[in-house]
Amino acid sequence: MSSATLATVLGADWQTLADAFGLGGIYALMAVGIGLVFGVLRLVNFAYGQLIMAGGYALAFAYERGWPVWTGILLCFAVVLLLTLAMDRVVFRPLREQSPAVMLVATFAVAFLLQSIAQLWFSSQGKIAASLSSLNQPWTISGVDIRKISIVATAVAIGCLLVLVTVLGRTSIGLHMRAAALDFQTARLLGVRANRVIGSAVLISGLLAATVAVIMTVQTPLVTPDFALRDTILVLAGVVLGGMNRLVPATLGGFAIGFASGFLGGALPTDKSQYLPSFLFAAVIVVLLIRPGGLFTRSGQRAVERV
Amino acid sequence: MSAPALIVQELDVRHGAVQAVRGLSLEVDRGEIVGLIGPNGAGKSSTLHAIMGLVRPAGGDVWLDGESVVGRKPEDVARRGIALVPEGRRILAELTVEENLRLGLAARRRRQDLDADLERVSELFPIIRESRKRPAGALSGGQQQQLAIGRALVSDPDVLLLDEPSLGLAPQMVDLVFEALQEIAVRGIAVLLVEQRAQRTVALAARSYVLSNGRLRLTLGPEAADDTETLVNAYFA
Description:
The structure holds two protein chains of two kinds.
Chain A: H1 3-10, H2 14-41, H3 48-64, H4 69-92, H5 100-122, E1 127-128, E2 138-141, E3 144-147, H6 148-170, H7 172-182, H8 184-189, H9 194-219, E4 222-223, H10 229-242, H11 247-267, H12 276-290
Antiparallel strand pairs in A: 1-4, 2-3
Chain B: E1 6-15, E2 18-28, E3 33-37, H1 44-52, E4 59-64, E5 67-68, H2 74-80, E6 82-85, H3 97-103, H4 114-124, H5 126-130, H6 141-153, E7 159-163, H7 171-186, E8 190-195, H8 198-204, E9 207-212, E10 215-220, H9 228-235
Parallel strand pairs in B: 3-8, 3-9, 6-7, 7-8
Antiparallel strand pairs in B: 1-2, 1-4, 4-5, 9-10
Helix pairs in contact in B: 3-6
């Protein structure tokens, strides 16, 4: 099949497909960030999007002052990591023994608190973070124009996932994290240090949030207090769709909803694309009615208790 | 002569209003198998959980090699040299056999002699070597129990606690597990065995503590194994 016909069959051009892959990759990274913390803490971090928002403001701060690109990225990572660790210390850790419902509501509170702080400090007008906007220029590959950021996003997502698979699969801290996600009490009885495992999961989720912030500001340079909020809700739906209590299905779910979102967003005419989230959530509901344990879990695995 | 590896002193365990263990004292020496038997709800598992730090005792003390471990987190107790083979085995079914075994290394204090120790575990339980790459959930119950004991052993513990290792196993698997315990004790590990199979436990152990309603009722030597009347009376005391 020639490249032109594949694109025709799918009813979209290559740019749309590349965008869909890029967005799928970003959502997959967010899904891992949310899924890792859920795995070891049974905590659905609704405030994950606000970590990305904070990273976006850090990039905008650096851009406004004309700082070099790498300084901005470093600042973004520093801010997101500090905020992640602060969130764990101040909110998650004291609530660790509480029920998942209490922790979920607490993360709602954190999410809205951070959003309000952003509104107070930076106003709801939004700030521009455009130091990497050159990545929006296209690359021409065998006659097809594709924006660089779509390829960069896909490549970064694949790279991050490969590193994660290696860390989780080949190192002892990775083994400990997987064991803790499956059965925390048994893992502790075997000598796995709870704080170290949780700390690692929180840290990795923060690194991923910072990475996502950098990529997202390329596509959406205007950073507002609700930056990444809609994406977080979609990713949470994707994670539940894939299967919340397993990392690989959760990641696939995140990718699926990102891909679908990007693909439909590009394929639908502009006046229809405002209904896109409604379509996606309707599809999520249908899938969960048919497969309550998640789309990508093996049958027989039980779904986690929902909160 | 050095003190016993594990000393439990006047242990009290409460679960809310229920007092599960009342003033229990026992000790296990290196190279010794000690049994802890009694009817359901006698406080056997609660005792093990209190030793491991899963529940904080309401009173009393637990000494490992002359050092108190009360109030420590389970992972710290494990890292100090007490390994628990939990009730129901608690194998991580989705991880491979080898990964389950490697988890046991989390609590290991010594870095040397690792290969030799892994080799000894494989000799004791050949099934572990034969099915290294398989998911642990694919093993039979008896094989999983061997893996659970192997996992505890690679942590190179001073004290091994077992919570009903024969539960739900086929008779020949029970034989295998009980024989393995003897070999483990010969290596100088202190073994505390919680069991429902009273007669076999009494026959195997240097001494067996009979617990009922959280209280120590009786201490039996191996010679009491054939004395059914004493055993029955001990249970219903």
